[in-house]
Each structure stands twice: as C-alpha cells, then as structure tokens.
Amino acid sequence: MATDFTKLPLDILVDLINFTDGCALSSSDITFSPPTALVSGNRNTGVTVTATPSSPYSGSRDLTYNRVDLASVPGERSTTFSFNGAVTMSDLIPQINAAYLINLQPEDYYNDLLPNLSDPSLSSFNFALRAKPGSYIWRNQLILTGQGNLVIIGNVITQNLLNGFILPEVAAQLQSNQTLNGVSFAGSAS
User: Fold this and answer.
1) Average pLDDT, stretch 155-159?
2) How confident is the model at residue 154 (pLDDT cuts 50, 70, 90)?
3) Closest listed residue to residue 94, CA positions, set 3, 15, 9, 6
4) Does the chain have fewer CB atoms within 10 Å around its N or its C terminus?
C-alpha cells in the first residue's frame, strides 16, 4: 500500500489498519491511545484502539506498527529551505509539507525557534525538525538547512572598480564595437 502522507495523522493510521485487516473503519469508528515507543520486537510503536460509542463496534485492541523516521523522508530531495522571515518551525512547515508531500501537524513536531539568520555573515545554518513522542506517524528528527533572506552584498556586487558614467548624447553617438572609458559597446545605443 502506498501511504498518502498528505492526510491527517489519524486518518493515515486508520488507512493502515484497513489495509492490513481488509476492513473499512473510519476515524469516527475508533479512538487511539497516545502512541508509546517500543524498544523490542520488530515494530517501534504501540497504541490501543478503542471503538467509539457511536460505532457498530465494541472493545479495544492493542496494535503495534512502525512510525516513519523523519530522516528518511527527503530521500534524494533537497533539505534546504528559505527562511523568508520564518521565526519558528511552524513558519516553515508549509514549505516542508509541500516539498515532501506530507502533512505535519502541530502535534507531530516541536515548534522550536529557528536560527536567527539576520546576521549577514550567516548565509545558511543547519537545524533539526524534531518529532514529538506523541506523533502517531513520525519519530526521530530530520536535519535541515535554512537559507536566510539576506544576501551578502559582496555576492551581488562583485566588481570593485566601476566604469564611468556616460551621457545619453555620447551613448547615442557610439557606433558598434566602440569603446569609451574601457567599456565596449556592441551595436548602437538607443
């Protein structure tokens, strides 16, 4: 089953149950206990599923499954994001969700402060997107690179010596391939 990570976390988990058991539960049929990390066995997470009073089901069932390690999400895709004024992780989440076709929700990650890239000497900085223990789908962390929205002026203005100003009348008189004050002009100026 190809998982649709653009869905809400509990809907993703319901889809996994339905795929595994061949049933047709909906998120209104069941509730989930908070997930617990497992350290033994071949699954990394445990939850208890309980039938809701309005569903045609009764009782509870303990389930185990594997949450996704955030570090595995990008694959070959870029891990660099533009800060563009972002201050906290939640400011970057829309970019991250769009880039990786996922749907991180506030309960999935810590809303950490991002590095302050207003210092012009910093053009980029590594930081961690950290999963909360209570995330139903995600675990661990993903190291990302942030690019500030300030560009070092030396990367834009690369020439120290500027050529002289040219009056419009002089520019209009220049013929093709002529040079004035060390500047070569191809074609006539208009």
Assistant:
1) 73
2) low
3) 6
4) C
For residue 65, give the nearest of 82, 83, 42, 49 by alpha carbon: 42
DSSP per-residue codes, 105-155: -GGGB--PBPP-TTSTT-SEEEEEEEB-TT-SSEESEEEEEEE-S---HHH
Distance CA 21, CA 126 (A): 41
Query: Which ranges in the chain belong to alpha helices (H)?
Result: 9-21, 89-100, 153-156, 168-173
Q: What is the pLDDT of residue 118?
A: 65
Say how far apart CA 124 and CA 145 lie, in whole Å.
Answer: 7
Which two three-digit tokens encode residue 190?
A: 């208009």
Chain mean position to CA 66: 22
Q: Is residue 63 pLDDT above 70, yes or no?
A: yes
Answer yes or no: is pLDDT of 184 > 50: yes
Structure tokens at 38: 């497992």
pLDDT value, residue 149: 59
Q: What is the token pair recorded at 2?
A: 């190809």
Contact 91, 111 (CB under 8 A): no
Nearest Cα neighbor of 130 from 122, 119, 142, 118 is: 142
Which residue reads 């008189």 in tokens?
173
Question: How far, in Å, CA of 155 to CA of 123, rounded?
Answer: 11
Q: What would the mean pLDDT of 32-60 be, rounded to a whole number? A: 96
Structure tokens at 36: 């617990």
